[in-house]
Task: structure prediction
Amino acid sequence: MGDEDLLRVSDLETHFFSYRGVVKAVDGVFFNMRKGESLGLVGETGSGKSVTALSIMRLIPPPGRIVGGKVIFQGENLLEKPEEEMRKIRGKRISMIFQDPMTSLNPVFRVGEQLAEVFTQHQGLDKKEAEKKSVDLLKSVGIPDPDRRAKQFPHQLSGGMRQRAMIAMALASRPDLLIADEPTTALDVTIQAQILELIKELKREVGTSMLLITHNLGVVAETCDRIAIMYAGSIVELAKSVTLFKNPLHPYTRGLLDCIPRIDAPKEKLAVIPGLVPDLIQPPLGCKFHPRCECPSDRCSAEKPQFLNVGDDHWVACDRNVGNIRNP
Amino acid sequence: MALWRYVYRRLWQMAIVLLGISVITFVLARYVPGDPVLHYLGERARDETIQRLRERWGLDRPVWEQYVIFIKGLLQGDLGTSISTQHPVTSDLAEFFPFTIELATSALLVSVVVGVPLGVISAVKRNKTIDHASRIFALAGSSTPIFWLAIMTIYLFYFRLGWVPGAGVISSHVQRPATITGLYTIDSLITGNFPAFLSTLHHLILPSLVLGSYSTALTTRIVRSSMLEILGQDYVRTARAKGLPERIVIYKHALKNTLIATVTIIGLNYGGLLSGAVITETVFARPGLGTYSIGTMLALDYPAIVGVTLVATIVYACINLVVDLLYGFLDPRIRYG
Amino acid sequence: MGEVKERILGLRKERLERLATLNPETKLTLSLLRRSPLAVIGISMVTIFAFIALLGPYLAPYDPYQLDLSVRFSPPSAGHWFGTDGEGRDIFSRVVFGSRYSLVAGLVPVISAVILGVILGAIAGFKGGKIEDLLMRITDMFLAFPSTILAMAIAAGLGPSLENAMIAMIAVWWPSYARLVRGSVLSIKETEYVEAARATGETDINLIFRYVLPNALSPIIVMATLDIGGAILTAAGLSFIGLGAQPPTPEWGAMVNAARIYAIEYWWLPTFPGLAILAVVLGFNLFGDGLRDALDPRLRRI
Result:
């Protein structure tokens, strides 16, 4: 990992302290992002993807707490910054869009006003200028009749329009990093494609890097340069998209890819990964995936595997691939 | 227009409810045990006197006819004559009701002015000292019998400390304001009678605080839980993700939603305040619906009982209607449905 | 005959199985309740008062009705912990005996209102149609009245006594429970497992008892425990006005009423009965709050 990285996350740990015990939602996450690239963070529900994103933004609500690690953004460790400075970064240098645009927009304020807030807060514009720029912004994300829409309330817009408005809000300050947490999951399939296109285009235009979080491998295949697979709080594999699909090394990744039914293959029973997602309060010892793995060795149940570079920027956390280690 | 549909629907609901209220009140008055005539005349009255009085009060007609008479009178604004005071019930009510409204409304103001900020701060500084203190206060407030609180506070603040008067609506040596609305505070302001205004306020302080104690406690708890719920919502997270300062997140984004939700509680509170006013007026020896209703209820004064219940309920229903309409106006999801 | 016996045994076995599945839920509730110190304090206070009420005659040093004009208006002392009233009666003994009236006045109306409301609400929710509409209109009308004023009117009409005050309170309180239950029934009615049960030919009554009620139970319990405090306050209030318990009954509200005119000179007359009311209601409120926090599925997670 080089110094020209936009974002470098090392050994991030975020725990939730609940009645039943400590939930280790993020348990040692390592990844990096370069300027201008798209990284897809893929995993099942509960794997810790959203918590990772919220940890980067330092928006973890109690009873959660970031308990360890570093988040180096443009050379500075975000975890050590005072809250005042984080506020200057949020919405301006790092922006986030969320899964459900209906609940993520304030129902009692007009759409235009909510957009204008970003301008007044980060660019110091006065109300009138901010509102004018909001309308322009709505137009640029493809919302027809933006003047009228800006004066409306969120419930008066369709799902797709709301998500466009959220994207507009996130890109208003031309951030260096955009985190998109399942931006299309709550939308109709036809709208999904449009929104993805919009995100890709704007990304190109504004030059922002993107961390795209999703459980849908199809989405990342289209939009991301690199993909990170996350399982039970840790990243188990990280590689360029093409490499990942052609040569998946981690058994979990292989399992995920096998689960995708193919149109061109003969019809057979759908493949599944046997077993259940582990309990994050008391995860299995050693490699957290080993109870479900097809080829575990003795080491897998005893030691947690290290996240190592096996060549060509392809990282895996699996002892079975020990033989493939080459010096980074 | 979504708003007009909403208004129309509420008005229609209210009409039906009013009808039902009139039936229930009527049934209440006529069918509970106890013969008002005997009660009034005493057991030893002669049969012919009893009969004559029955006729005069219309109690010998069939029930449904009595109801029709009742409704007809109602629509003409006639509630009959009070057995105890011998005045028309409507004029009795016109004389006494404004005092109760004055008291209940000022108690409502107290509960809003104290309860809402307290609830908000409590939610924002959750589990810190001020939160615990306000929760204890709210708990104590909703457990205290108002009549007892009234007596205790009169003893402390009037008898011991002499800060406030212990009874009455206005000092005896102050000139009463001219009767325009019947509300001393408003009337004295309108007519420029400042001594009356100040004296009325002075007499209102303790009763309002006492009467308002229960609803303040209630308001605090509800605002707190509402605010806590809203602070956990996605759009608050979005506001923070935009980098907005915390005070804008709380006092702009979260607060507006909380206030809209709280408005409806205010309406419901008013019913409790009207009821509580009965007790408060008794203890503070203030004229009003309370003292009037107690006297008439113990005397089985049917026209008065019916009148009081009906008017109190209508006022309560009106306030709730206004609150609901206000809510529809404030919540953009209803206004621009 | 054997068929019936088989059916009963079968139902019993199913009930046990159902209890086994309920158990983790109830266990969690109980443990959460333990974790809420307020609820524990609350229920301790309530239990203390319950004991006082039950053991009244043994705890009270004097007969609550016994007059002794030679010691009237005595301030609190070693012989009379709470002092004596205008007739020389020991206030402490009267407060102890008064706990019975208040607890009864709190529990009986609420429990009756719950039962009445649950029955009517379940019928309304289940049958639907005109019956439901009629019942809902009736509850709307009852709820339109400011509750205490309506209670006063009813109590006045029936004649001043504690029993009539309780009847009045039942009449005023049942609509809230009816609405609550109806709402629960409506939402549960639409769930799939009820539809499945219906498809297998379950009778309506069976459906109500086995599926609907257990799920509607927790909001009812929360509402009821919080209402008990309110009922005690209302009963005391009605007695204070003169529409409830009548003197010389040692009911706390009536005692405060009798003490009112003497309050300035003899402060102990109204103070102790009122404090007792405060304490009991506080206990029930604490318990109700803790219960609500424990049972609220949203608050449970964290």
Observations:
- Chain B has a mean pLDDT of 82.
